[in-house]
Amino acid sequence: MKLLLWTLLLAVRSRAGSCGNGVSFTKHPSNQTVSQGNAARLGCAVQGLTEPDIFWRKDGEKLYSTDQMFITLGEQHWETYHSVKSVQQQDAGQYWCEVEFHDLTFSSERAWITVEGVPHFLQEPQDVSSFPNVPFNLTCAAVGPPEPVEVLWWLGGVQEGEPRPSPSVLHVQGVNISVKFYCEAKNTRGISVSRTGTAHIKVLPAAPVGLQVLRMVDNNVTLSWKPGFSGYSELSTCIVQLSRRSVRRWDLPQQEVQVPPHLHVLSGLRSHSNYSVRVSCVNEVGASPFCSWLHFMTPESEPSAAPRNLTFQLSEQQLALNWAGLQEEELQGRLLAYKVQWTLGGEPQEPLLFKENRAQLSGGGRFFNASFQVSACTSVGCGPWSPPVLVLPASVQVQVQRSHMWVGLLLGLLVATVVGLLLTGAAHRHEKETQFGSAFKAPGPESSVSFTAARSFNRNCAELQDSTLDSLGINEDLKNKLQDVLIPERLLTLGHMLGKGEFGSVREAFLKTEDSSVMKVAVKVLKSDITSSCDIEQCLKEAAYMKDFHHPNVIQLIGVSLHRRAGQRLPIPMVVLPFMKHGDLHTFLLLSRLGELPVDLSVQTLLRFMLDISRGMEYLSGRSIIHRDLAARNCMLNENMTVCVADFGLSKKIYSGDYYRQGSVSKLPVKWIALESLADNVYTTQSDVWAFGVAMWEIMTRGQTPYPGVENSEIYEYLIKGERLKKPPDCRDDIYEVMHSCWSPVPKCRPSFQQLVAQLEALSLSLCPAPPLLYVNLEGEEEEGGGAVGVRAPGPQEDGAPGWSVPWQQRAEDEEKDWLMVGSEVALAIGGDYRYIMGPCGEGEGAESLVRDEDDDVVINV
Questions:
Q1: Cβ proximity of 613 and 739 under 8 Å
Q2: Are 42 and 69 within 8 A, CB to CB?
Q3: Among 537, 672, 688, 833, which is least packed by CB within 10 angstroms?
Q4: 557-607 pLDDT, tens per residue?
Q5: Which are the catalytic amino acids?
Q6: Residues 557, 550: Cα–Cα separation, whole Å
Q7: pTM value?
Q8: Domains in the chain with CATH codes
Q9: pLDDT at 787 over 80
């Protein structure tokens, strides 16, 4: 039945004369051949309708005309025309008129407009690049009507051969210099001339320009440059030459970089070292000249080695200390002071600072039996400690040995007696042992039996063995990924809690490394009430994602450890991460606005936070990682105030396609989720871009909650109506435009993270450098030896990176004491409690007033 109905409908539409329901065409458009520039007119008449709606179509597309006229020929008889005043090639095509009646469409016969004129080009010759005397082809194609069309070539102002039919291919044997060319197309109506092209000779490229250091992070230097003249050949690679200047110049192996982009990261550079770099680019012909040398210095770092050969000379009047200075490559910066720490009777004493690698301390007797260590310090901090040296002269040792000789003999006799008794008891027990153990009857009215096994096992033993990944029941792929980052639990010492969430907590901890040094870390610990391997596997998947991350703006995995619990089958997984000194970005922003000591964060600083996040997300998206929980609370600030993207608990790896669909219901951050994710549970890199825009809004508002006044349950209706987060107060228009572009309802219309990095870098370059944060201690805590002083972050270092001081993040054990030298770069860089800053012979350094105490030590009175 349906097939019959469609057949009838097609018959109705194709009828040329009388149509069903009394509708008929009495006039049809006719074929016309028109010269280019003349007028054309098509007519159409229909009968059987009172007020018909007649419209025209060209090649199937409806024509919209403002000057279409209707003429009444009689009752229910209408005529209309379609006119073209000056016919052009684009007007050529098939035309007909249509009328609709009772949901049916009736069509007239179809007619063609053919435009005659000079030829028009379908393909014009394009520029070419070639080596000298190497043949190449040029193509030109043109059509009428009228036909035929002939093509004539001109090369270097000279006619090439005779006219030939279109399309035409000109074979050029080769040229030695650049020449111009074009083609002429001719028919009976006239001649058309194509664009003029150029045949270029490929040459060497020009030297790159604009070589600069784009950024410098942890001795990883990012270079950027712009290519010079390409030599009419695509650049394939660029050559980077690097040399280090110390006593003499060291030329390092040159590196070959694929381009574009014209960027390169120099990694593994030495701290506080002078480098020179230059770049040359390569095309098919060869390498360009090198650009001018660019000179730069890497930032300072903590010393990499401890001072060696610490020795002392002790007399009744003074203690003299000497140690070997560090080499330039070990110092990794400008030496500010040597830090000497010492303990007496197991109690740590106040550290001392010295300008040179020797010191003389008055009152030698008070240092008897003291232990000394020394460390070198730069403006960044202090390096490792030297092995401890105990101050105990040989003459004193002899006197001590004589005075305690009798005590030693008595102790030796006592020890021998105890050992003899133990051996006697062991021999007595050995006589009663059996193959499996021995039983003893204890004296007394009640009989009790105890059994000593030859080999015992105790599940509740306090000394638990380290857990292995084999005991978890997780899949083999995940186990293999984590095997080389497994950290024995005995190397971790957990400290106080830093934060707590729905699935576990984050604790401060100390990790003992292979060289026996200790580093502060953060440990994510799953809740202790886990009961299945699935919970453990979900926690460890986050660590598996992070294992291969290596980017300054993405938090890196240190390792994974397993906490064995007494009486439990499964251990608790612990993910070991770097310790982030300044916590999460959201808390930092809140406290900068609402804390006890508010800090005015500049636009440059806020923009740098956004740029750090965008670079981290560019790296993650490039590795097919969808974060799904990007927000200021999940971005951390390290000691350099660099933002690192963190918390990958909701992250997913895209193995095929470009999206991930959430299959189960889970708690998700509604106010950061993209519109399409709220609607369809589909997550893509574009949905991460949406969340990045919300994070930008958080940064500009310094920690405010998005969509104030809008409940979570109302977010979808709010967004579907076209509403978005409002422009924050004091937010620049160009920053808000970038932010707003992230919230396009069409995911593909949002910028990529690569584009966001470029946009934010351009905005950052248009602003002045960010000033350092300032912090002044106005409370004036009293301390022996001085009063309260102001403390500020060090000014910009030689590499241009500003220093930071974040007062609300400091705990009591980290706070600097009142008696620090005002403006002392040493005290600010090294940190800690220092009352003494001395020269090698106990002479105070600086212009501060000096007061001697009863021990003749120099105290700087501030």
A1: no
A2: no
A3: 833
A4: 888 887 776 656 677 778 888 888 888 899 899 888 887 778 888 999 999
A5: 629
A6: 9
A7: 0.41
A8: 2-116 (2.60.40.10), 120-201 (2.60.40.10), 209-297 (2.60.40.10), 487-578 (3.30.200.20), 585-765 (1.10.510.10)
A9: no
